[in-house]
Task: structure prediction
Amino acid sequence: MEAYNESLSLDKAFYAEDIDGSIAWARANKNAGILTEKEFKEIERGFGIVRKEWDSDSFQIKSGVDERLWLRKKLHQIEDHLTSLLKVIVSRAENDIDLLLPGYTHLQRAQPVRWSHWLLSYGACFARDLRALKFVIQELNYCPLGCGALSGNVFNVDRRAIADELGFKELCMNSMDAVSDRDFLLKTMGWGSDFMLHVSRIAEDLCIYSSQEFGFVKLADAYSTGSSLMPQKK
Result:
């Protein structure tokens, strides 16, 4: 049962978000008159010490809000990388506008196309992915902190202030829904599946186009591996 229920090995990714959420909750209790300024400062100082210990992998913990905080940060990082990728695709399409190659259907030569047209076909895929990613981020950007375990809290804390401190756009309006909602995780996984499908398509095209049979592109050695038995392969 311990092996079945254990989650700390996975929850360790959320320690920084858990600290941020705990400090925001303590501040809300201070503002509601439950904690004194001195008590809050001591809590904040203590969490600063704990953060240093957790930075060295000494302790780990998680709460419901941590998933949203951690995931939002990671998705914003992916958003930045995806935006950079789109800029590179557009730039290369502009620079290589005069390059022509055969367009293929069922691996048979069909019609001549511009290299930029092929490249921008994946730009269109990734642009859709970027729009969908922004929607996923919007859907998870709701703050559940203050909803308690089921039916809210009786401390009269300012949940709007908590959400603002943690960078959430909106509040989860129903506590029962907030503590059970994991739709944002399913939406993220669905988005990731679509995105990786597009990544695998362009990767396979480049693998084929860089083969000796096609020879349309050459992959840099820094991003390639060879065969231990047949050095002519890349």
User: Anything to note?
Assistant: Confidence is low (pLDDT under 50) at residues 57-62. Residues 102 and 108 are 9 Å apart (CA to CA).
